[in-house]
Amino acid sequence: MHDILVFIGRFQPFHIAHQRVIEQALTQGRDVIVLIGSSRQPRNLRNPFTIEERMAMIRASLPPEVQSRVHLQPLEDCLYNDDVWVKNVQEGVKAVVERLGKPSPLRIGLIGHMKDESSYYLRLFPQWDSVPVDNIQSISATPLRDCYLLGQMPDPKLFPEGAWQFLKDFMATETYTELHEEAEFIAKYRKTWEAAPYPPTFVTVDAVVIQAGHILMVERKARPGKGQWALPGGFVDQKETLLTACIRELREETRLKVPEPVLKGAIKGQQVFDDPYRSSRGRTITHAFHFDLKPVDSALPKVKGGDDARLAFWVPLSAVAPEKLFEDHYHIIRAMTGLY
Questions:
Q1: What is the model's pLDDT at position 323?
Q2: Nearby residues of 57 by Cβ (< 8 Å), 6 or more positions away
């Protein structure tokens, strides 16, 4: 018998296979900690539900008699730094243990199903026992979520009653309507290349421009991610280098009037970001350039939104929050600026 079993997931949405894992954990552990990943991501097609909504979904799906033994804890993503993510997991477990007042040492186990390469995290915690479980009916949240966001309620038998009721109620909200329209946009977008002999890989560039503790951001004018903050950037044209594309997109979207030699001289680093799920549009690999501009006077350079950007503006680095940013741009900023 374990003192604590840890179950990590995103639960987008919470379904009966998730519920069965918790039920099994309760038979093998005195307490169960459910770490809910992507806790501070913006709403998008992969993460349509907030941390508060997922917590409510899970609580509504648990019988009253076990709720005092199941402890829900937010877990923040760190896409490009496993060490930081592992630390976040450890700190999340520690926070719950301290709240419970559990004496040390404790026998802790990590319970989960190794469904594919995305489950590699189960191997990152050698200090804990590994408690494998089978995947109930091979259920995956991805097709259920895709079906739901495109307007079709999936089979109610695949959800606990509490989660099913949440999904029905959520479908009547303006937030769902916005997500549904985004899902339809992406479905049409993908149809334009579905006749290709194999799925394409897109190449983009992003500019991380820093000056005096501020970062240059834009507000997206169109889907996907309409209204979200983003790094200036876009797709690479057929006959340009990555750096040329990055400077072109930077100028088109922000009207930044810094001479090109100055921009090139301010390059502090370049990095590839290739998380397979980073973009809803399909496999998209981006090359980010870090420009560290030296202050020339007390004012930041003037900028103005253009092209795909409704607005362009400078933001203090302390005000950059994952809930506001498009795709993985928060994680790009953290990696490029050393804020991890």
A1: 94
A2: 11, 13, 14, 49, 162, 163, 166
Question: Which pLDDT does position 201 carry in this prediction?
Answer: 95
Q: Structurally, what CATH architecture does the domain formed by 2-170 represent?
A: 3-Layer(aba) Sandwich (3.40)
| 202-337 under CATH 3.90.79.10, yes or no | yes
Beta bridge partners of 147: none
Contact yes or no for 96/6 (Cβ under 8 A): no
Domain locations along the chain: 2-170, 202-337
Query: Mind listing the pLDDT tens digit for each residue in 87-109?
Result: 999 999 999 999 999 888 899 99
* CA distances for 71 relative to 34, 52, 148, 284, angstroms: 6, 14, 27, 36
CA 206 to chain centre: 18
Q: What is the dihedral of CA 219, 220, 225, 229, to 10 degrees?
A: -20
For 221, other C-beta atoms within 10 Å of its C-beta total 16
Single-letter amino acid, residue 174: E
What the block records as the tokens of 49 is 């539900």
